[in-house]
Amino acid sequence: MITMKDIVREGHPVLREVAEAVELPPTEENKETLEEMLQFLKNSQDPETAEAYDLRSGVGLAAPQIGVKKRLIAVHFTDERDELYSMGLFNPKIISHSVEETHLEDGEGCLSVDREVTGIVPRYKRITVEGTTLDGENVTLRLRNFPAIVFQHEIDHLNGIMFYDRIPDFQDDLKRDLQ
Ligand SMILES: CC(C)(C)[C@H](NC(=O)Nc1cc(F)cc(F)c1)C(=O)N(CC(=O)NO)CC1CCCC1
Ligand SMILES: [Zn+2]
Question: Which residues are listed for Fe cation binding in this entry (predicted)?
Fold first, then answer.
């Protein structure tokens, strides 16, 4: 099972590389990896398991974060309308997005980042994602708000992008100006 020791932390080169697409239908090995990623998220949100194994509660995970340079992501969370998003995706791709942006009020964190990085992370408010699920189904997901933010954060990991790369520099100036 995946635990926090398997999660690669910032500074490890794999987090700055572009992950490779996987062949479909997926190999048994790639299916197992993606299933383990999804299970980690579920475990991390189960109070007993999370405490027993000291897991940080995660809503999304990308394969490079466990040192696997492949285009796999897993998500497990409920959105503002209490809709459950729980899935693994092979080769996820953002095929279109809104011009309009959104962001999490408190900024973002990352399972691979053991520090607080303040600042708003601009994300597209709506995105359309294509990918292949664990049971081999090609899906097209139309996402908005929190689900869109999670998928953008995870797909960024497949392209070696960390959330703080997107924090506009001017925010510091604003803080300086306000002091
Ligand atoms: C790094 C961590 C803080 C654990 C983060 N969790 C998170 O943001 N939970 C959350 C946020 C809410 F807005 C409401 C709520 F109910 C729970 C997370 O799992 N990730 C996943 C990750 O690091 N993937 O690589 C970071 C999130 C930042 C934005 C989307 C994913
Ligand atoms: Zn992350």
Answer: 110, 153, 157
ipTM of the prediction: 0.97
Domains delineated in the chain:
13-166 (3.90.45.10)
Contact, 76 vs 41, CB < 8 A? yes
Ion ligand 2 neighbours (CB, 5 A) are: 110
Tell me how far apart the alpha carbons of residues 166 and 67 are, in angstroms, rounded to a whole number.
23
Q: Ligand 1: which residue has its CA nearest to atom 18?
A: 58
pLDDT tens figures, 69-93: 999 999 999 999 999 999 999 999 9
Counting from 1 in the atom list of ligand 1, the atom nearest the Cα of 57 is 4
